[in-house]
Amino acid sequence: MAQEITTNQLRKWLLAYAARIIENEDHLTELDTAIGDADHGVNMRRGMGKLQERLRDEGHSEDVSAFLRSVAMTLISGVGGAAGPLYGTFFLRAATSPTNGSSVDLEQLTQMFRYGLDGLQQRGKAQADDKTMIDTIQPAVEAMEAALAAHQSAAVVLAAARQAALLGMKRTIEIEARKGRASYLGPHSIGHQDPGATSAYFLFETAAEVFTSTGAD
Amino acid sequence: MIGLVIVSHSAKLAAGVHELAAQMAGCQVAIGQAGGLSDGGETLGTDASRVLSAIDEVWCEDGVLLLMDLGSAVMSAELALEMLPENRRRNCLLSNAPLVEGAIVAALHASLGEPLQAVNAVAEAALAAPKLDRAG
Q1: Which of A81, B75, B80, B97 gives B51 a disulfide partner, CB atoms 3.0 to 4.6 angstroms apart?
Q2: Nearest-neighbour CA in chain A from B35: distance (Å)
Q3: What is the ipTM of this complex?
C-alpha cells in the first residue's frame, strides 16, 4: 500500500517551497539579470508572500483538488511576469488529476505532477532543451514515473525526482535558450542557468524533504 | 454587439488603448481592461483572473474579442479562457492583432454590429497595414 499524502502535507510542502523561494530571491534575480529582465526573483517573492498568507489561513479546503485550485488562483494573481500564468497553469492542471479526496497516493502524486507538466507545455509551448522550467520538471516527472514503475518506495521516488530535477536545472547552463526573453540572446544565453528552471527545481527539493520526513503512514 | 477586452502588462497602456478605441467607436462598444497586477494595476504584469473579470464585465452573447500586448499577456489571456465555463469560452476569441491598431479597428467594426470572427479578421489585417509608404 502506497503512502498517502494528505492535503495538509501538500500545504506543508508549499509553505516550505514558498520559504525556499523567498530565501533564494536574490539568487533568482541574479540569474534573471544575466539572461532575462531581472524580475523573476521579485515576482516569485511577491507570489510566495501571497501564497504564505493563503496557506497560513486555516480556512483552506481539505479536498486536494480544491486546495490545488486555490494555490493556482493565488499564484495567477500574485506572481506576475511569465511565471504567473505558467505556475498558475501548472497547479490548475494538477488540480484536475485524480485524488482520494483529501489525500493522494504516490501514483496520484506522480500523476499530479504529470498533469501540471502537460499543462505547462501546452501553455508555454516549450519543449525539452529550450532552457525553461520544462527542463527541470520533465526529467523529474519521468524519473518519478520510472521509479514508480519499478515499485520503489516514496523516499526513493521523491529522491529520484529531486536528483533528475537538479541535473535538469544544471543542464540549462549548457544549452541555448529557445523560449522567453533569454532566447533573444541566442548563443550568449549559454553559460547561464535558467531562472525558471531554478525556481521549479525547488518544487522537487522541498517535496523530497517534506513528504519523506512527515509523510510516513 | 461584441465586447472587447484589452490585456496589457501596463494599466496605463490598457487605459490609453481603451481611450483611443472608445473614441473611435463613439463609446457604444463595451471595452474591458485588464492591465497590470491585482494591486490596482500598480505593478506591471498580467493576471488571468483580472482578464476573467474584464470578460465578465463586457460579456455579451455575441462574443468577446481579446487583444493582448505581448509575451505573458497572451499566456494570461489563454489561461483566462481555460478558466471560463465552456459555453462562454466558445464565444471568446484571442486576436493576433497588434494592440493599438487592432483595438481601434476592432472597436470601429464592433460598433457597426459585425460578428466576432469578422471583427477579428479586420483587426488582424491591421498587422499588414504599413504605416509608411517606403516606395520610391
Answers
A1: B80
A2: 11
A3: 0.87
